[in-house]
Specification:
Shape: globular
Structural class: mainly beta
Strand order of the largest sheet: 3-2-1-28
Mean pLDDT: 94
Order of helices and strands: EEEEEEEEEEEHEEEEEEEEEEEEEEEEE
Strand content: over 45%
Distance between the termini: 18 Å
Radius of gyration: 18 Å
């Protein structure tokens, strides 16, 4: 079952871990995969060639002619939310299986439209991490800017706190509007959390913080780490992916890492088994 398997999005398609613990490519498509979401029981892949639903036997197109380069995705079931180079869009699929996308970002500046990450705050609000900083979208009042204006690569909610990985480091916020530095001064490309752990993929390897303590190095120093994931059943079992660098695994919270030989290409997305975030 795909829900019980690690998934990895690479510059040449999606890979899945098999029963032997090795990885094999899913399907024939070799698109650049930038994000994966399986929070609604299916697998949506954001790619450089649109939005796709990845199934065991085939890939199903979920984009229309307006949605091309997709950077991030949230699967709300009946509604899909895409972050793309051209803004944020809501997508639905009609009874005949045809997708339709409605754009939210047409009136924003170019840098604010280029959206690298999107995060649901609640039923009415979204956080968007863009080349022009973090923006908040409200279902009724539309867009507003925030105090974070640096290019943003990733977003995470950890407890009652929001985290944003940006070109100038890591930022935190209690409300999504007002941001403060969070102790990392290098570019942060990826964030993930399980229980009390937060793990960051950065320009200089993997960093980890536990119980709110200061960040410390957790290996792969010198590598641009663009994807990280933690096993939901073993907090010491992580995967990290680099651009370049391929896929790496640790089973001791980053004290030692081993390269995964099947995946030597660039990695931008990793989804842990049972991930519903």
């Amino acid at each position: 079952m795909l829900s019980d398997s690690w998934l990895v999005g690479t510059s040449s398609g999606v890979y899945v871990a098999n029963d032997q613990g090795t990885f094999e490519r899913m399907g024939a498509y070799q698109f650049r995969v930038t994000a994966l979401d399986r929070s609604s029981g299916r697998i949506l892949a954001a790619t450089g060639s649109g939005m796709w639903e990845v199934r065991q036997d085939r890939w199903v197109q979920r984009h229309d002619e307006t949605l091309t380069e997709v950077m991030d995705v949230i699967d709300d079931g009946e509604r899909m939310i895409a972050a793309s180079a051209y803004g944020v869009a809501f997508g639905t699929t009609d009874p005949s299986g045809v997708p339709h996308w409605d754009w939210l970002s047409n009136n924003l500046h170019v840098n604010q439209r280029f959206t690298n990450a999107v995060l649901r705050m609640d039923d009415a609000r979204l956080l968007a991490g863009t080349e022009g900083g973090v923006l908040i979208h409200h279902a009724t009042s539309g867009w507003r800017t925030t105090s974070l204006v640096a290019p943003v690569r990733c977003l995470l909610r950890h407890g009652d706190e929001y985290l944003a990985g940006a070109d100038d480091g890591l930022w935190s916020s209690d409300d999504g509007q007002n941001w403060r530095p969070a102790g990392v001064q290098v570019t942060v490309y990826a964030l993930t959390t399980v229980q009390n752990l937060v793990v960051a993929g950065t320009e200089q390897g993997v960093l980890v913080s536990s119980d709110g303590r200061p960040w410390c190095c957790a290996g792969l120093a010198g590598m641009r780490v663009t994807a990280v994931a933690i096993s939901p059943v073993d907090a010491g079992h992580w995967y990290a992916g680099g651009m370049p660098g391929g896929l790496w695994i640790t089973r001791d919270q980053g004290q030692s890492w081993v390269a995964v030989p099947e995946i030597r290409v660039e990695v931008e997305a990793i989804s842990a088994p049972g991930d519903r975030s």
